C-alpha cells in the first residue's frame, strides 16, 4: 500500500504528538514512583513435575543487588545489570509464590508471583460391581480419581452407557486440594442387563487457556436377573412301564434373562437330555424317559428332579415316579388252522397276581389261567379270541390284551347274495361283474361263455358294450372242493337312428305317393314318432299324395327305457317353375345409384334358371339377367324385356317393362359455388339448377337473418347461401358464397407528427383505403422532393431529414378494377424564429393577399358544387370547404390536409394556416 507525502507527514506529526503526551504522562508517574521491580509471568499454571522460566527485572539504573526467592528447585540462572532469569524444574508443589526483589537507592523493590500446578486424571477407578444383581435391588457405584487436581477444576461423572447418572463438581476448593471421590446409588433394572457402567473424570483448564483434560475408567458390565421364588412346574406320568417311553416336562415362568438360565432334568442318578425351548420369560424342558428291564421286577419308585439355575441361584422341583413290569398275556390255541368239525382248545394266562379274561370262557380266580374248548365250524372261521389281563398298580387298573384268529377250512359256496344269477347293464357305462364265493382257503372264481365271445373279468370295472350280453358259467374252487353256477347278462342301450333305418334327406315329386318311415335300434325296442318343424302339413300314417305343403323338416324321436335319440328328416318336394308378381314385377322403375336392383325370380324346385332379354333384338336381345335369381351387373336400359324360367320339371315366361329415374344432383355448371356481384348494379337473382328425374325443386336460403330485397346490390348482400334440390328420390345440397365488389374510397390520410415539420426532422404520411378487390396505392409528391421512401404496399410514405423542398401538397390515390379515389394533404416545413421575424413584414402583405385570394377562391366555381365552413381563423387557423359527397373519412381533415377530387367528381379542399 502506498501513501502520499501529505498523509505520511500528517501521520508522523500525530505519532510525535502521542509520544510527547506519553512522555509527559510518564514523567508525571515517575515523579510519584520512580523505580519498580517486575516478575514475569506473574501467574502461571504448570503440569506437576514440569518446568518454568521466571524473568525478574527492574528500571533502577544501578541496582545494588537483586534476586529471586522461591522454595522450588532451580536448574539455571542468567543475569544482567537490571534483570535476572531463572529456570524452575520438577515443580510438584500445588501452589508456590516466588518473590522478585532489587535493592535500589536504599529501598527494596519487590514483585510477587503465583505458580499453580495441575495433575491430569490419569487414574479413574470404578469399584467392581457384583457379578449378578437381582432386579429391584439397590447397588452403589463408587468412583475414585486419585491425585488429579486442582480439585476445584475437576468434575466426576458416573455413566450408564452414554447416559449420565450423576455429576459431582468441587467448587471453592483450595488450589492445594487433590483427588476426588463420587458415589451414586441406583436400582437394578431389566434394562441394565449387560449394560456398561463407567466413570468420566474431566479437568477443566480452559479458563487458564489449557483446554479440557478427560479420562474414563474401564467400563464394567452389569448382569441383572429376575428369578421367582416359586419352584418350577414339573409334569410327569405317575406310572412308567419298563421298556416304554414317556415324556416329562419342566417349565418356569418369570425368568430374566430367560436365555441365560439353565434347566436340568434327572431321573434318580440318570441325567436326562431334554429339549429346551424359550417363549418370552418362560423356559421349558421336555425329555423322553425309558427304564430298561434289568434289575426291575414288579414295581419300583424313582425320584424325578428339575433344577433351574440363574444368577447363581437355584429353584428345584421333584416328584416320585413308579416303574412297573406288566408284559402281555399268553394266548395259545391247540391248532391255528383246522378243518370244519375239528375240536379246538384255547388257553389264556398272565403274570402272577393278574386277573385274566377270555371271550366265551368262565372267569378264573386271580392268578389262574382261563381256557375254552369248541368244535370248529364255518361260523368259527376268522373268529378272534381275545385274552385280557388286568393288574392294579398304585390304585390304577392296568389292562393288557392279546388276540388270536382261528382259521377253519371249508368248501366254496355260490349263493345269490355273493353271485347274482341275472345282471342288467347299460351300454357305455362302466360296470363290474361280481361273483364272490365264501370258502376257506379263499376260492378261485372264473366266469366263461360256453358259446364264446368277449369275456368279462371278475371284480374289474369295464366299459360295457352290447357284445357283452349272454350267459356265463361261473366256477368257484379251493383245496376243499368246488361249485358251479350260470349267470345271465343283459345289456340295454338307448335308441339309435342311423342313415340306414332313417335317412336324413328325401326328395319327393309333387303329385306322387310316398310314405315317411323311420326304424331305430335299441334294447328294449324303441318307439319312433315324427312331427313337422318347418313343414306346413302333418304327415298321415301310411301312403299320401305329395303336395308342396309336405316339404320341410320333420323331427323324428325314438324312445325306450334307456333314453331317446332324435334326428331331423328333410323332405324336399320338387315341382315345375312359375312366375309371381312379387318375385318378378311386370313393371319396374330403377333409381340410378341405389343399391336395390331389379331381380326376377321364379318359383320352382329345383330352383329355375331365369333369363331376361330385351325385346326386338336378335340373339335374344340385351341380356338383363345372365343366370337364375341373379342381379344385373349394371342398371338396365329402359324398355321391354322377356323373362323365361326353366328347371328339370318344365318352364314359364313373363313380360317385364323397365323405366329409369334418378335423385337430384347439383354441380358447378348448374350452381357455381362462388358468385361475385357489383355494388350499385341491379340486384340479380340467385338461381341454381339441378339434374334428376322427376325434375328437382331447388330452394336457396341465406345463412343468418333474412335481409329485405333491394333493387340494387349493396355490400350487405354478401354472404353464404344454402341451396337444396329435392325430388321423390332424395335431395342434394350445395353451399354458394356471394361476394360484393365496390370502387375504392380513401378513408384516411394522416401525417405523423401532425402540424409543421422542422428542417432536418422526420415525418410519415399514412394512407388507408377501402375497396373490393383491395386497392393499389400511388402518390404524387411536390416537385423536386428527394429521399422519399414507400412501404411494401405503398400505403405509407416516409421522409428522413426534411428539407424546404419537402413542403407542399402530397396526394394519395387508391385504384382497383372498379375505379379510383384520391386525397391530398399539405406538409409545411417551417424555419427558425429569426427567419420568421425577418420575413414577417414581407410576409404580412403576402398573407393578407393570400387570405383575400382564399376568400375569393372559396366563393369561386371550385366551391359552387358544395358548401363551405370557415372556422375562426384566430383560434384554429383552418378554413375548410366541403361538398355533399366528399364529406367522407377525409372531410374532417387532419391538420394540414388538402383534398382534391378525382375520378368521381367529389372534391375536398383544406388549407391550414400555421404559426410557429
UniProtKB/TrEMBL annotation:
Ion transport as UniProt keyword: no
Locations listed in the record: Membrane
Record-annotated Ig-like domain positions: 327-488, 526-659, 664-737, 744-830
Bias type Basic and acidic residues, positions: 700-712
Spans traversing the lipid bilayer: 833-858
Molecular-function GO terms, alphabetical: integrin binding
An example Gene Ontology CC term for this record: postsynapse
Similarity field: Belongs to the immunoglobulin superfamily. ICAM family.
Principal location class: membrane
Region listing for Disordered, in residue ranges: 693-716
Signal peptide (residue range): 1-31
Protein name listed in UniProt: Intercellular adhesion molecule 5
Keywords: Cell adhesion, Disulfide bond, Glycoprotein, Immunoglobulin domain, Membrane, Repeat, Signal, Transmembrane, Transmembrane helix
UniProt lineage: Eukaryota, Metazoa, Chordata, Craniata, Vertebrata
Cross-referenced PROSITE patterns: IG_LIKE (PS50835)
Gene Ontology biological process terms in this record: cell adhesion; cellular response to oxygen-containing compound; immune effector process; immune response; leukocyte cell-cell adhesion; leukocyte migration; phagocytosis; regulation of synapse assembly
Membrane topology: Single-pass type I membrane protein
CDD domains: Ig
